[in-house]
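idk why but the lab printer keeps eating my pages so im just putting this in chat instead. protein + iron/sulfur cluster:
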Amino acid sequence: MIEMDNNIFDLMKKANEITLKNHGNIITLERAIFLSWWCDKGDCAFCYMSTQKNKIKDPRKAKRNINNIYAEAEMCKRLDWNIEFLSGGYESFSTKEIKKIAANIKEITGDGVWLNTGITNDLEEFGNEIKGITGAIEIVNPKLHDKICPSKSLDDISQMLDISGDLGFKKAITIILGLGETLEDMDYLLNYIKNHKIDRVIFYSLNPHKETIYANSSQPASLYYAQVVSHVRLAFPKIEIICGTWIDNLANIGILILSGANGITKFPLFKMFGTKYGKRVEEEVKWSGRELKGTFTDKIKLGLEKSKFNPELDKFIKRYIKESLKNKY
Ligand code: SF4
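predcted complex ->
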């Protein structure tokens, strides 16, 4: 059983060596693209969407403008950010619509798209516009999972991931640390990765939202987060690990990279771009001895206020550039 390791630095040192050996020194910036602000389930105890469900009268209005989504993808391409996945609450877009959006984004970025759009039985409808499927496990303790995410059955998620693999898609899971799990649950996580042949693990740290039961909870400690990531890296040298950290916790970045992260995520990209916070992300990566793919500061990379793909995207591109140039902090 995994227990608290008093020699966290040894653990991180080993994890770092294994990461460098298997993945090289590039760190990616990952950006989740949201499709909508509506979720039909809306009952996961930690989730911002669960606080919005009763406030949204017409779910169709919570859908984002498609051209805005494409413009965001085009900006990610310009800044060399990876698209972490397309994400959206349940029942906001049909499978056909998601497939079309993914195909158009592939045109823009030149790369297949990961999906994190909920449990689905329609996987066979997808083709090479999709690179992989993400199962939102969220919490690595099955008993707590039933309480915290009552409408997202762990069995259904696992089954979807297994079918994804059979269809040739890669498989990812998302885990939020700080929901009540402990290091004792890490054996479950390691077994899950092994049994379902997971290619990519995305960790987030709890963001305690107002109006949820976690409103007054603390985010997980940096060295706890580091231990979890290090253990996963040591057990699975080749897996891709993405670590999320919020703008109020940027000091975690260097530690998480040294623990085995290949990419970092969960930033308000356009707000942070070019600011002291964007610069801090780049400094964290530099001081962990890595090279960043993409930029948080290079204004030239923002490019022209015109889309290369479709003039209907121009007004959104213009808005993203304006937001990136406005220092809000
Ligand atoms: S299913 Fe996803 S979007 Fe919906 S409430 Fe749960 S975590 Fe939030």
